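re: ur question from yesterday

yeah so i grabbed the chain u mentioned. its 351 aa long if i counted rite. heres the sequnce exactly as i have it in my notes:
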Amino acid sequence: MTDLQQYLVDEFVEDYQEGHMSRRDALQRIAAVTGSLVLANTILAACGSPTPAITSTAGVPAGTTAAVSATAATTAATTATGVPSAAATAGAATTPAATAAGGSPATAGPAAGVRVSADDPALQAAMAQFPGQGATLIGYLARPKGDGPFPIVLVCHENRGLTEHIKDVARRLAKAGYVGLAVDLLARQGGTDKIVDAAQVPGLLGNTPPEQFVQDFQSGLRYTQAQPYVRKDRAGMVGFCFGGGVTWRCATKMPELRAVVPFYGPNPPLEEVANIQAAVQAIYGELDKRIDQGIPAIEAAMHQHNKTFVKLIYPNANHAFHNDTGQSYNPEAAKDAWSKTLAWFERYLKA
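ran it thru and got these C-alpha cells back, copy pasting raw so excuse formatting
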C-alpha cells in the first residue's frame, strides 16, 4: 500500500476500534482501499473488539498546550488558561480547549454562526471546470466580489471528497479576502456528487496515485492564476485529514506555494521535505494519537532543512475537530485554529 492508502486503512481501523464505525462499514471501506475483503477481515480480526464510542462533552474548560517552532528558532511550549491571542507565529501560543469525540466525522447539522452562505452578497461562488493532465477537472471556486487582486488559497478535502463542508471552507476564505479553489480529486470519476455509494469514495482516492493529486492541484493553481482578479505570486494551501496529507505533498512539489496549513495530516515522504519552500503551520489535536506520533519526525526534518515550521496542538481535541458537520467537532479549538490559519495566510500571502 502507498502511505496514503495505509493512512486511510488505519483511520477506519481506529474508527472501528473506538466504536464510531460498525464492523460492516469498516470492512466495506477497508476492502475498497485494499481491493480485498479477505485482507480487510484479516486486518479487523487483528484489532480485537471495539470499545464504546466516546461521548462528546464540548465546552469543558481545560488547560492549553500549543507547541511552536520556526526556522532557526527554539521550540517553545506554553500551558495557560483562558482565551488566546490570534498570534501563532512567534513564541508559544495558547488556545481554549474542549473535549470532543474521536473518529471520522458523521453527518450532523452545522454549528450556528460558523458557515458562510453560498449566496452571500459579498462573494461569488460556483463550480468551475479547468484543464488537467489528460482530463477536465472540476473544483469549487469562491472569491470576493471586486477586481482584486486577491491571493489564492487552494483547499484539499477529506477522504469523503468535495463535500458541502469543504465548499464552505472555500467560502470562508473568500470572506477573508482570498480566492479559494477546492479541487475535487474525484473529477476523473465524474466528481464526488456522481459517486452513488459514498462508502466507495475513500477507496477511489486510496487507489489513485498520490502524484496525480499533486498534478491536479498544480492544474488548479494554473487555472486560478489565469484569472484577472488574482494575485498570481501569492498562493497558499490548506487541507484536512487526508487532505492535510495531500497538502504536505503539494508543499514538497509546488514551489509556488508560499504558505500551507495542513490540519492533522499524515507526513509527506521525509526525504522530500528539503524541497518545501512554503511556510508551514501544522495543526493537530492532542487526542489524535495516530497522527500525532508522526510529529517528531516531521518537526526534525523541517528543522534539519531550516524550514519555517509552526506546530499547534489543541488539547482535548481529536482528529477532524475542525469539521463542524462531524462528531469530533470542537467549536472552541476549531474557532481558534481557523483564526490562526487566517493569520498565517495574512502574514505570508497578503504582505
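noticed a couple things. The beta strands are 64-68, 76-80, 123-132, 135-144, 150-156, 179-183, 230-240, 257-263, 279-285, 309-314. also Residues 86 and 340 are 6 Å apart (CA to CA).
anyway ttyl
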